Amino acid sequence: MDYRKKSEEIFEYVQGIRRQLHQWGEVGFDLPQTVALVKEELTKMGIEHYPVGKAGVCGIIGKGDKCVLLRADMDALPMDETTGLPYASTSGGTHSCGHDCHAAMLLGAAKLLKENEANLKGVVKLMFQPAEELLQGAVDMIENGILENPKPDVAFATHVSVGQPGTTVGRVTYSSGPALYSGDAVRIEVTGKASHGAAAFMGVDAINIAAHIVVALNEIISREIPLDEHSVVLVGKISGGDTVNTTAGSAVLEVSLRAQTEEKRNFLKQRVKEISEGIASTFRGKADVQFVYGMSPLYCDPQAAADAHRYISQLGYTPVCVPCAGGTEDFTAVANIIPSVMLNLGAGSLEEGHICSMHNAGMVVNEDVLPTGVAIYCQCATQWLEENA
Length: 389
Description:
The protein is α/β, with parallel strands linked by helices. The chain is built from ten helices and 16 strands. The protein has helices at residues 3-9, 11-24, 32-45, 99-115, 137-143, 206-224, 262-282, 302-314, 332-335, 370-388, and strands at residues 48-52, 56-62, 67-73, 123-129, 154-161, 172-174, 177-180, 183-191, 195-196, 231-240, 246-247, 250-259, 286-295, 298-300, 320-321, 340-346.
């Protein structure tokens, strides 16, 4: 089957699915309309499917000993959309990371793969995943059996990119080896003792402790990380105190950590805990360091990446291998278990007028990229099975 040609022929179908999902903009694990639509479409196609975990859906196409997993996330972000599009979300959540595109493209791929099922040399497993933005959805589906019965031999995922240099519509990029940074959310609760400002010596100022922690955490990057090992320690939120004329009895800091390797990730977490607790103790307070959620760095299997490069090239696209990027992705949980690769699809660059990037409520996707994603999903699954059956 000529997947590139066939994907263009079903453009209106994929676009319609994408716009419907976009309008709902459901978040986290709370995706009732999204999940219902996915199940309904798979049923129409005659594709066997079943629920996995809190809000995931798995579809099965084909038969055989070998198995390819195709993954798409489905959740939106909790923000009010500002695009002004006629199909803009009004639900309080918006698809400003392109997951509506991913789910629509995988449904389009499911349609074509089902049509070509008799020629498949094995099983294609479809993973429709919730809660990627919480970095929890993939883990939930794994814990509930998505990688079993059958266990996939390889996994492919796609992700659109918008509003950055090099995200020209239709440009395909990937990484071989380190692909994305780890991501950890840390909450630091500082406990002091409130007192009147005229008798500050009787209290323990939690805001003062928090301020010293902020300054000290910034020193980790400049003093403890080699120049060629990029990492991030960002205090993104701080709050504390009750009134203008009292010492603060408590303060809270929220910190984001990113690293290229698991070793460096563990080092950052260790130092944040040591520094926070040490400074709090120095100023007669306490610090409770909580690692709220996190995900390891994404590593793309070099062989899977090389295979994907060949498959995509045969579709007539020109894939480009790029260095590790700074984002975080919970597809990592899959890649930690089976050989995997994530493919990035340009859906509108700065040069093309897309001034709002990912996680911006004004992000607009050029829908011309949708057939590209459909064709890539299909080609990667079909050709990998042909070569490895």
